[in-house]
Design a protein that fits this description.
about 375 residues; alpha/beta; Rossmann fold; isomerase; UDP-N-acetylglucosamine 2-epimerase activity
Length: about 375
C-alpha cells in the first residue's frame, strides 16, 4: 500500500508526526510525505524536531496570503504530486485550508482519503473560521473517518455518514506530547528559566483566533491584566502570535506590566514543556485544549464555541466565551478555589492514551486488505 500524508501547518505537523513515524515502521507500506508550507517557519521547526524529511515541498507560503491563494496554490501543487506518486490513500489531519485543498485534489483523482481528527464540530460555520467549513467539506469527500472520540463519531453519524467508515482512535496529539515532554527541560529563552514555577501561579496565555481579533481580544487581555495587577503571586507568559493586529492589542494592555511576559512564539518542544510547568492554561487554541489536560493542567477556553466539548464535559476545560466579567471571575476562581482547581487538574483526559497512530495505521491496513 502506498500512503501519501499531506500537511501544511504546525498543528497538522505535530499531529501527523506520530502517523509518519508509525508508517515508517511498516514494511508493507510505502510512505510518502508532502507539505504545502502553508505555515513556513513554524512548520519547519516541527519537521526538525521529529526528524521528518518531506519527499515533496510545495512551499506555497508568502506574506499576507489570502485563503483563496492558499487553496488554489495548494491544489495546483498537490495535483502534480498526486499524478507522480499515485497513492492508494491520502492521509490528512484536521481542518486547515491545506486539508480542504488536499481532499479536493485527491477526490478529483478518485484517490481514497483518510481524515484524521474527523468529526469535530463547533456548530457555527463561521467559528472557528475557516476551520469549521474546512472539516465539514473534507468529511464529504472522506472514505475513512478517524474520529478522536465518541462525540466526534456521533457528530458524523448525525450527518449521515456510514458507521462502518468511522473509527474511534483517540487523538495523535497525545502521542506527540509523550515524545516532547522532557524532565529538567531547559529553555532557550532565559526568562522562562528564571520564573518560579513552584511558588508562583504561572499562567500560559495564547490568543490568536481571527474571530477574536477586536473587542473580544480586548476583553480577554483586559481581564488578564486586571487579575494580574490584583494577584501578586500570579505571572503570565504570553507567546505573542505574529499577526500584527494581535500584537497591537497585546502591547496596548501588557506593555510595562512586570509580571506579564510577552515572548516570541515558541517552537513545539519548548511550548509543550512550558505547558507542563504552568499552573493553568488560558487559550483560544484548539489543540491546546487536548494537550493541557494530558498534563493535568486546567484549561480556560477563550472562545464562544468549541468543537472540543469532550474536555468541557469531562471537567478538564471551561468554555468561557469572550465576556470580560466571565473571564475575570473564572480566572479568579481557579486561583483561589482549590477544590475546583483539583477537580479540573485530576479529571480524566478524554482525548486518548498516546497510541492513536498505531490504531489508525492498523485500521488502514485492515481496510486495505478487505478491499483487495
Amino acid at each position: 500500500m502506498k500512503v501519501l500524508t499531506v500537511f501544511g501547518t504546525r498543528p497538522e505537523a505535530i499531529k501527523m508526526a506520530p502517523i509518519v513515524k508509525e508508517l515508517e515502521k511498516r514494511k508493507n507500506i510505502e510512505s510518502v510525505v508532502a507539505v504545502t508550507g502553508q505555515h513556513r517557519q513554524m512548520l519547519d521547526q516541527v519537521l526538525s524536531i521529529f526528524n521528518i524529511k518531506p519527499d515533496y515541498d510545495i512551499n506555497i507560503f508568502k506574506p499576507g496570503q489570502t485563503l483563496t491563494e492558499i487553496t488554489t496554490n495548494s491544489m495546483l501543487g498537490l495535483e502534480k504530486v498526486l499524478d507522480e506518486v499515485k497513492p492508494d490513500v491520502l492521509l490528512i489531519q484536521g481542518d486547515t485550508t491545506t486539508v480542504f485543498s488536499a481532499s479536493v485534489a485527491a477526490f478529483y483523482k478518485k484517490i481514497k482519503i483518510g481524515h484524521i481528527e474527523a468529526g469535530l464540530r463547533s456548530g457555527n460555520i463561521y467559528s472557528p473560521f475557516p476551520e469549521e467549513a474546512n472539516r465539514k467539506l473534507t468529511g464529504i469527500l472522506t472514505n475513512y473517518h478517524f474520529a478522536p472520540t465518541e462525540t466526534n463519531r456521533d457528530n458524523l453519524l448525525r450527518e449521515g455518514y456510514d458507521e462502518k467508515n468511522i473509527f474511534v482512535t483517540g487523538n495523535t496529539v497525545i502521542d506527540a506530547l509523550k515524545y516532547a515532554i522532557k524532565d529538567n527541560y531547559v529553555f532557550d529563552e532565559e526568562i522562562l528559566n528564571s520564573i518560579d514555577y513552584e511558588n508562583k501561579k504561572v499562567i500560559l496565555l495564547t490568543s490568536h483566533r481571527r474571530e477574536n481579533i477586536g473587542q473580544p481580544m480586548e476583553n480577554i487581555f483586559k481581564a488578564v491584566e486586571d487579575v494580574v495587577m490584583e494577584e501578586k503571586d500570579v505571572e503570565v507568559i504570553f507567546p505573542v502570535h505574529l499577526n500584527p493586529k494581535v500584537r497591537e492589542i497585546a502591547h496596548k494592555y501588557f506593555d510595562g506590566k512586570d509580571r506579564i511576559h510577552m515572548i516570541e512564539p515558541l517552537d513545539y518542544l519548548p511550548f509543550s514543556n512550558l505547558m507542563n510547568k504552568v499552573y493553568l492554561v488560558m487559550t483560544d487554541s484548539g489543540g491546546v485544549q487536548e494537550e493541557a489536560p494530558a498534563l493535568g493542567k486546567p484549561v480556560l477556553v477563550l472562545r464562544e464555541e468549541t468543537e472540543r466539548m469532550e474536555g468541557v464535559l469531562a471537567d478538564t476545560a471551561k468554555l468561557l466565551g469572550t465576556d470580560y466579567k466571565v473571564i475575570y471571575d473564572n480566572f479568579k476562581n481557579l486561583l483561589h478555589n482549590k477544590d475546583e482547581y483539583n477537580k479540573m487538574a485530576h479529571a480524566i483526559n478524554p482525548y486518548g492514551d498516546g497510541n492513536s497512530a498505531k490504531k489508525i495505521i492498523d485500521i488502514l491496513e485492515e481496510e486495505f486488505e478487505k478491499e483487495k
